[in-house]
Every structure is written in structure tokens, then in C-alpha cells.
Amino acid sequence: MVCARMLNILNLIDDARCFETVRAMRWPQGVTCPHCDSPQVTKQGHDESQPARQKYECTVCRRRFDDLTGTIFAGHHQPLRVWMLCLYFMGLNLSNEQIAQELDLNSDDAQKMTTQLREGIVERKPEVTLSGEVECDEVYVVAGHKGKPEEVKKKGRLGRRRRLKGERGRGTLEKEKPPIFGMMQRGGEVVITMLPNVQQKTIAPLIEQTIAKGTVVYTDEYDIYDRLTEWGYPHHTVCHSAGEFARDEDGDGFCEIHVNTIEGFWSLLRSWLRPHRGVSQEKLPLYLGLFEFVHNVRKRGKALLGALLELLVTPTPRNAG
Question: What average pLDDT does range 172-194 have in this prediction?
Fold first, then answer.
């Protein structure tokens, strides 16, 4: 019997095609200088360690750059194909440990890569404005200080030996049960944010920044939403404590008063976080930002990889300078 050999997925990815993809996404109208935006550039050979990585010189500002200058992929020792595969596996929601195994990486290297990619996505993801009909709700996620024993000592208690369970009831960041505040347009996009607590003073700036004035907002009966009308939003509530989950208020036979859409979204978020076996408070906003982007682009597999890669190869002003 012939023993099947393990397939190394890295051998299936071509470096040249990776760089061709980056160039096509970054400069669809032709190469331009990331420093002055001039299209007057000349090719200056290739990188010695990565032959597929084209080098350029701008004839206007005389500065040199290459395919990755100003992007999140610049300045790292891992080949571009490794970064692309890492990003692809993140889109499949593999844990850092699984990604390390798939790419034959040290676990610390894999964690650093995924953290940098998540930071890049959160930094570059487009701002979202919600309108029409929007549901607001909050959920509580157990999250301590994973890998940071100094934070545990600050709280004056011994480290937990078992899985974090958090305190009963509504949580806060201090109780290691941070609230995630969500705003979701029916049939549209979602915005989620980790907060230290859920109070009117913490949610008001987020609502006013994200939801267009005059938008109809649906919530449960939690009193933090009592001033929505005062803030400029027609407000309807469903009373969960009374066993009510949807209500037909205008008599058309359709129960339009509910927050079922965002509650369904919370189920998806919990499923997304489950493979990672506990995310720290420090890293949780990065996981939320990635999931928000994935949900809003509504793509999976290779299509999602394309959307993530296109987002990441777009230089930010800070990186391009």
C-alpha cells in the first residue's frame, strides 16, 4: 500500500501570479507613484530575494518603490504567497493555530501575521452609513486578558484555571464580559463596536455618527434607547420581558416591530468567534472588524479573498508617505 504524502499548499501558489494580482488590483489604470501619484514611472529591475517583485522609479519625485511599497505586505520576510494564503484562511475563519499548521509556520509568526492583517482591514474598511430601517441591539461576549497575566494581577485575583464564564447579567469591560453594540440596516450593512459599557452616553455618539437622521430605529425595551426620538430617530420597541418578539403595529398583517434581524446576526457572530477559543479584550475589536467587513461585502471563498486583498493593497496616506 502506498502511503499518501502530505500536500504542501504553498507549492500550489505561484509567486509571479500573486504579484500580477496585486499590480492589477492596486493600479488598474497603470502604475503610479505611491508618493506623488505621478504615472511617469520607469521599471528598475526586480527584487533580489523575490524575483517576481517589480521595482520602479518615479521620474517626477525621483523616489523608488516596488509593488508592495505603502501596503501592509511591505517590510516583512514572509513571501507574498504566504500572506495571501493566510488571508484566504482567515476568510474561511480558521484559527491562528490552524493557519500555522496549514502554512507550516511557527505559531507566534502566524499570530503576528493574522493580527497585522486584521489591523489593516479595520484601518481601511470603509465607513458605513445606515438608513431606512435600522435595528439596534447589544450582546455580551466573555473576553478576558488572554496571554496577559499582568492584567490579571491588576485585578487582585488569581488567574482562572477554567474557561472564562463572566458574571451573570449585563456585562461590562471591567467584568470581563464586554458589550458589543450593533446597528444593522434591514437588508443592508451592519456596524458593530465593543464598548466599556452600554449607557446612553456611550451609544449616542455611535448612533449619530452611523445612522442617518430620520431613520426609523427598532430596539427592545432597554432604557438606554429611551432618547432615540429626542436624538432625531423615529423609535419603535418590542417588549421581550413581556414575551413579545414581533408586533404588527399598523395592522397590515406584517409584524414589522422586531429586532430579529440583528439577533440572528449575533448567532452568526458567536459561531464566528467559537473556533478561536476565547479572544482577549485587546484583540476582540480586530475580530469584530473583520467579521463586520466579511458580512457587509457578502462574499465567500475566492471572491472574499479578492475583496480583502483589494482593501489591503490600497495604501493609506500614512503608509504612502
Answer: 91
